[in-house]
Amino acid sequence: MTARMKLHWSPKSPYVRKVMICAHELGLVPRLELVRSVAAMLKPNPAIMAVNPLSKIPTLVREDGSTLFDSVVICEYLNELARGPLFPAQGEARWQALRWHAFGDGLLDALILWRNERERQAPLQPLLDAFELKARASLKELDEEAQALREAPFTIGSLTLACALGYLDYRFDAFGWRTQAPRLAEWYAEVSKRASVQATAPVDG
Ligand SMILES: N[C@@H](CCC(=O)N[C@@H](CS)C(=O)NCC(=O)O)C(=O)O
Q: How would residue 3 be classed by pLDDT, with cut points 50, 70 and 90?
């Protein structure tokens, strides 16, 4: 049997989900051994640090023992392995995909910091307000881009935005993002029908 690559993985992490959506889309799931790994900002995990000093997931350990991180690097590597379509090679399609990727990742970064702050004993209200302002502004902008998203191919950009919206459902249920961005919600409902998106929905445990 061919050696498999080890992916430090959790079913809750939206960044890991990006990698898993790519793996499903590209038919590479059988090449991955998923290693359940707990990554918490306040508790660096020695098992992850042995291969990634930043103690973050996803981290990929390739068959030759070399490692790749972070999520977008792993996604692009998988896409290259499979000669996939998830990273358009050039032109406007590339910039659009990379911009949506940056948008989705940036939104995720803000949401995770927002959640961390919200769960502290004495959260700083100005920080909470700033994260909420950015999340609302992002949803407003993405709602305006919903038609372009609908017309674009499924790429690293669209799948990362889907992960960010999935994370809003998972951790920010009361935020009611769909009322703020109804056209984006329609796009998300379509994208959520993909087998790769369904197979990777976040779960506790
Ligand atoms: N930019 C990184 C972010 C990864 C990340 O922050 N993952 C979280 C889990 S959702 C993590 O490992 N947190 C642990 C930490 O920040 O120490 C990526 O895209 O892979």
A: confident
User: Which pLDDT value is given to residue 48?
Assistant: 98
SS3 content of the chain, % helix, strand, coil (to 5): 60, 10, 30
Amino acid occupying residue 88: P
Exposure string for 143-152, b = 16+ CB within 10 A, e = fewer:
bebbeebeeb
Residue 125 host element (H or E)? helix 125-144
pTM over 0.85: yes
Cβ atoms of 143 and 180 closer than 8 Å: yes
Whether the CA torsion 152, 83, 98, 69 is positive or negative: it is positive
First and final C-alpha spacing in the chain: 30
Location of structure tokens 């590209």 = 26
Compute the C-alpha angle 3/6/10, nearest 5°: 150
Given the CA of residue 58, which atom of ligand 1 is nearest to it?
A: 20
Q: What is the pLDDT of residue 2?
A: 67
Separation of CA 57 and ligand 1 centre (Å)? 5
Ligand 1 pocket, residue 13 CB under 6 Å:
yes
Taking the centre of ligand 1 as the mean of its atom positions, its distance from the CA of residue 108, in whole angstroms, is 10
The amino acid at 174? A
**In this model, does residue 1 exceed pLDDT 60?**
no
